[in-house]
């Protein structure tokens, strides 16, 4: 049954990687695969339970005669519930973050970005787009940031070719910006929640490589653009009535939303409670401010939401959350059948180099969604306790070891080699209705240059620190 579940997972990963060919939604594949994997495990889970949880299962039986029902009860209460709790904590964080972005967007807190980027100078609009995307993705997930910025570019840039290059910069900046903070991406959030990294050490080592991996492709893309950008005519934003939230109120809400998310790592360190509780706390404060600042509109029953607002952000993020749930279920099954332990032993014997592993991971991430690869890579190895006399290779797997940083960095940048390697890239393909071939011809080579430079910078930082 171990072989059957592994083959099932590989076939599912293949369908996920070929979504652009089969047109089968990868979220559907991941959800079905995860549920089917746990059903198979439940049917023949006794052997796996004795192998992976022998002592715990023996204590659970406590002298009672063994039965199939008892084995299933142990799996449900002690095996599955452990993975479900971890998964739910990540999903609740993503939902809370999405709700924060939704409240800020509905109150026009991101309108200043459109005003800031409304310039004809290519250098200014490219630099502004990359910097804003990079900073926003450090707080929100890369898909949310990418969809937001691609929507803004649609309102600003009239020329389709120019918008394609700027949109590619958005994808790169969103992925690289999300990888250097523990709250910027679901995979980095998982590494942090697992206890493999601490927030400060993680950002300290990855911020400069992420900046370099973003700046070099952006500079190379700049060479393909003219000196000025074709900007669309300015339109008036209408929010359902003649009122408009004052700028100071928008800034207050933006500060609470983004500043609150930055406080989440400190909240987790102080209270030791799951990060999603800190996110829900920020959301609660933000909602109170929303009620206070919009009390006039609420009393007069005027709409607070822009008529005809593009709701793609909700649809895209919900799909990503479902995809994340499905992949997590698949990975948890592979952990429980011992497949990850077998992979760990093989890699330790034949590869034995975290840098080689991370580069290979990045290359595969270009084809297979980086969430699948990074999540699998995270669960192959456990966080090793720091002891004296450890080899350099073993030190890479302790808390804040190089392996965890390299996995996130290579997964994020390698996922940008092709637009199908990350959710932001897929949003770019659908938004601009372009092709993978265009991306390969004009963007992939530039991403490779940024990846190489970013890895060299990380190697230097790793040697120094």
Notes on the structure:
This protein has 465 residues and is an all-alpha fold. The chain is 75% helix and 0% strand. It has helices spanning 2-17, 19-22, 26-43, 45-52, 54-61, 68-106, 111-117, 122-137, 142-156, 160-178, 186-194, 199-222, 247-271, 275-293, 295-299, 312-336, 339-350, 354-365, 370-380, 392-395, 402-414, 423-432, 436-464. Helix 1 packs antiparallel against helix 3. The radius of gyration is 23 Å and the shape is globular. Residues 238-243 and 303-309 have low confidence and may be disordered.
What labels describe this entry?
75% helix; mainly alpha; 23 helices; 465 residues
Overview in brief:
This protein is mainly alpha-helical. Helices cover 75% and strands 0% of the residues.
């Amino acid at each position: 049954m171990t072989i059957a579940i592994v083959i099932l997972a590989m076939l599912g990963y293949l369908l996920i990687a070929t979504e652009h060919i089969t047109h089968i939604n990868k979220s559907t594949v991941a959800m079905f695969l995860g549920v089917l994997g746990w059903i198979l495990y439940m049917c023949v889970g006794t052997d796996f339970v004795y192998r992976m949880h022998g002592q715990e299962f023996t204590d659970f039986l406590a002298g009672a005669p063994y039965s199939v029902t008892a084995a299933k009860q142990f799996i449900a209460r002690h095996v599955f519930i452990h993975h479900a709790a971890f998964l739910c904590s990540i999903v609740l964080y993503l939902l809370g973050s999405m709700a924060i972005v939704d409240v800020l967007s509905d109150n026009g807190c991101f309108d200043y970005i459109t005003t800031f980027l409304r310039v004809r100078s290519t250098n200014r609009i490219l630099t502004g787009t990359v910097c804003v995307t990079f900073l926003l993705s450090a707080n929100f997930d890369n898909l949310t940031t990418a969809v937001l910025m691609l929507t803004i570019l649609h309102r600003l840039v009239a020329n389709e070719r120019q918008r394609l290059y700027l949109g590619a910069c958005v994808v790169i900046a969103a992925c690289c910006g999300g990888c250097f903070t523990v709250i910027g991406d679901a995979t980095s959030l998982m590494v942090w929640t697992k206890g493999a990294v601490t927030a400060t050490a993680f950002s300290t080592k990855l911020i400069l490589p992420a900046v370099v991996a973003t700046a070099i492709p952006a500079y190379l893309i700049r060479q393909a653009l003219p000196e000025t950008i074709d900007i669309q005519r300015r339109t008036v934003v209408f929010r359902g009535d003649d009122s408009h939230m004052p700028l100071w109120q928008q800034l207050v809400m933006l500060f609470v939303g983004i500043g609150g998310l930055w406080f989440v790592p400190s909240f987790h360190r102080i209270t030791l409670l799951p990060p999603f509780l800190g996110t829900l706390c920020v959301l609660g404060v933000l909602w109170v401010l929303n009620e206070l600042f919009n009390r006039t509109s609420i009393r007069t029953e005027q709409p607070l939401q822009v008529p005809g607002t593009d709701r793609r952000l909700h649809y895209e993020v919900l799909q990503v959350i479902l995809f994340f749930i499905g992949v997590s279920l698949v990975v948890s099954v592979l952990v429980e059948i011992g497949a990850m332990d077998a992979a760990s032993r093989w890699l330790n014997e034949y590869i034995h180099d975290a840098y080689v592993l991370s580069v290979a991971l990045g290359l595969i991430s270009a084809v297979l969604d980086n969430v699948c690869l990074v999540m699998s890579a995270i669960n192959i190895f456990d966080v090793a306790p720091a002891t004296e006399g450890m080899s350099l290779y073993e030190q890479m797997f302790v808390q804040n070891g190089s392996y965890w940083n390299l996995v996130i960095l290579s997964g994020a940048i390698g996922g940008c080699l092709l637009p199908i390697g990350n959710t932001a890239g897929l949003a770019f393909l659908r938004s601009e209705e372009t092709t993978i071939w265009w991306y390969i011809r004009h963007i992939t080579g530039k991403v490779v240059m940024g990846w190489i430079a970013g890895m060299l910078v990380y190697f230097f930082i790793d040697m120094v620190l």
